[in-house]
Write a structure and sequence with these properties.
By secondary structure, the protein is α+β, with helices and mostly antiparallel strands. The protein has one domain. A three-stranded antiparallel sheet has the order 5-6-7, with helices on one face. The longest helix has 20 residues.
């Protein structure tokens, strides 16, 4: 009798507990604890080598509605970090450019997203030079930053930058993040090229050695773009190698007084290497990673909205022969020959 009563009591208790544990209909369930929880003591804090890392958010993010076109999207990303070795490799292809041209290239690279359109315009107007080219740039109401427009007389430079947009963006971002480190990298490469005998003065450039090496055009009104292989000129030459032909100058560009509004002129585009300052249009270039969406450099060039863009010239893309020539530092102009033949 007692056993039956105890069994009934236990059964009743179990039934009550089971009823209490059953979820009430419609009752919000608590989510299960996240797994894994905090690691036990002594567990390694960092993943082992080779363990896949979580991917960072995509960059750049999408700009909010109404954000002005032609600017990099806003981002809370910290500035990119580059090691000195990475910067050395990044600047090698432009480190031996004359100082005025180099300063314009670095400034324009911060507007990397405008380079492809500018390169296309330079391609289509490659037959214009000197004052005629300056008038065309003004007359077409071009929407790009004046630092980008300043490179339109150098279609081979714009072509190089547009052909490798990843490199151009990295160069611009590095310059925005730390101008001084980029300038130091340029000087390290120049010192190597000078030490190994490749970088010397000649009819096209004047090289001034010292703690800081400067490279200036021999004729300020005619700027040559050096053509060289970074894998050669920044490496100690092997015995018997003739260093004299490693840097060539095939194509010079006439920079007349008409280009003064874009910052061209004696002393207007230069470096203060020791103070880590870059001058463009005779004003310190102060565009940085922080103010990149709002900074406006002072220029004499009127800035136009994209909707104001006009075109008043015949467009002639380079022939394959012309394009190949200026990529190798030479100028071949077939457009004028064709016009002459038609007459």
């Amino acid at each position: 009798m007692k056993t039956n009563r105890a069994t009934k009591i236990i059964g009743a208790i179990v039934a009550i507990l089971a009823a209490g544990m059953a979820p009430v209909p419609g009752w919000a369930q608590q989510p299960p604890p996240q797994y894994p929880q905090a690691p036990p003591p002594g567990y390694p804090q960092t993943p082992p080598p080779g363990y896949p890392q979580s991917a960072p958010p995509a960059y750049p993010q999408q700009p909010p509605p109404g954000y002005p076109q032609g600017y990099p999207p806003p981002s809370n990303y910290p500035p990119p970090a580059f090691t000195p070795q990475q910067l050395d490799g990044l600047v090698q292809r432009i480190a031996l450019y004359p100082d005025p041209l180099l300063s314009q290239v670095l400034a324009a690279a911060t507007f990397y997203y405008q380079i492809p359109d500018a390169a296309r315009w330079a391609d289509e107007h490659h037959y214009l030079t000197g004052d005629a080219l300056a008038a065309a740039i003004q007359g077409d109401h071009l929407p790009w930053d004046p630092s980008v427009q300043a490179l339109l007389p150098f279609p081979n430079v714009l072509d190089m930058m547009a052909a490798d947009p990843g490199w151009t963006q990295e160069l611009g971002n590095a310059f925005l993040a730390n101008q001084g480190m980029v300038m130091d990298a340029v000087q390290r490469q120049r010192q190597l090229a000078y030490q190994y005998g490749y970088l010397r003065s000649g009819p096209q450039i004047v090289v001034t050695p010292g703690p800081y090496i400067t490279i200036m055009p021999a004729n300020p009104a005619f700027i040559y773009v050096p053509v060289y292989n970074p894998a050669i000129v920044f490496v100690r030459p092997r015995p018997g190698f003739v260093v004299g032909g490693a840097i060539s100058f095939g194509w010079g560009f006439s920079i007349t007084a008409a280009f003064r509004p874009w910052g061209w002129g004696v002393g207007f585009a230069r470096f203060d290497w020791g103070a880590h300052r870059v001058f463009v249009n005779n004003v310190v270039w102060n565009r940085t990673w922080v103010n990149r969406n709002v900074y406006v450099h002072p220029y004499a060039v009127q800035r136009y909205e994209p909707a104001r863009r006009v075109e008043g010239h015949e467009l002639h893309e380079p022939t394959p022969r012309e394009r190949e020539a200026y990529r190798s530092g030479r100028r071949v102009e077939e457009h004028q020959a064709r016009e002459h033949d038609r007459r």
